[in-house]
Amino acid sequence: MSMELRKQLEQGATKLALNLSTEQLDKLMGFLDLLQKWNKVYNLTSVRDPQEMMSLHMLDSLAAVPALRRHLTALGKPAGERVMQLDVGSGGGLPGVVFAVCCPEVDIHCVDTVGKKAAFLQQAAVALKLPNLKGIHARVETLHGPYDIISCRAFASLVDFTTWSRAAIAADGVWFAMKGKHPQDEIDALGSNVHVFHVEPLSVPGLDAERCIVWAKPVADTL
């Protein structure tokens, strides 16, 4: 089964034009193993079948990596300057751990209110040798950045996501919300202090389902 899953991962990464190294592919497979083992005790995800974990979680998260990489390039940070990203409601590390593997130039802080999930993320950082990954047990409302990017995957409504993480986002930062269908109702419910500047459709290898990324940025309060 592991060889079949490895092949599925490699084919998915190729289809997404990610050009992942052997080491990165090894780490993603290692993460899948960790997720399966810890899930038996800590209930990190309701998905139990390794095949479904690959398609519904791993490849679904990988599908957002090209968009994240394009944004990182557009930021134009000087060589050696780290990009700070907060992943909200990370749970079992999806997409946070996947982003940390695929984007080593980004420091990914994964926050979750469940202590066991944050502990798993810390263990994953050690086991997978990911110095750019950190698990945080806290409520996102208590965090202060500034973070260049604040991401989430199927976490909450856009209103709650942006409201709760407002104090943590940099003045020129962006919100990166992974959603299923185009969430027009959620976008319409946002206040004037959040500007949605792009809704980017995603195609997940091997998965016939609607996915998108909602890109937004904070608007300064005006008198």
Please write out the topology.
Layout: H1 2-15, H2 22-42, H3 50-62, H4 65-75, E1 83-88, H5 96-102, E2 106-112, H6 115-127, E3 133-137, E4 147-153, H7 158-164, E5 169-179, H8 184-188, E6 194-202, E7 211-218
Parallel strand pairs: 1-2, 1-4, 2-3, 4-5
Antiparallel strand pairs: 5-7, 6-7
Helix pairs in contact: 1-3, 2-5, 2-6
What attributes does this structure have?
8 helices, 24% strand, 223 residues
Describe the structure.
With about 220 residues, the protein is α/β, with parallel strands linked by helices. The protein has 8 helices and 7 strands, in the order ααααβαβαββαβαββ. A 7-stranded mixed β-sheet has the order 3-2-1-4-5-7-6, sandwiched between helices. Strand 4, helix 7 (about 160-165) and strand 5 form a beta-alpha-beta unit. Helix 2 runs antiparallel to helix 6 (about 115-125). The protein is globular and about 50 Å long. The model has no long low-confidence stretch (mean pLDDT about 90).
Helix content: 40-55%
Q: How many strand units?
A: 7
- Strand order, sheet with most strands: 3-2-1-4-5-7-6
Our count of helices gives: 8
Distance between the termini: 60 Å
Average pLDDT, rounded to a whole number, is 91
Q: In percent, how much strand structure appears in the residues?
A: 15-25%
Alpha-beta classification: alpha/beta
Main beta sheet:
7 strands, mixed
The geometry reads as globular
Rounded to an integer, what's the Rg over CA atoms? 17 Å
The low-pLDDT segments are: none
Question: What series of H and E elements makes up the topology?
Answer: HHHHEHEHEEHEHEE
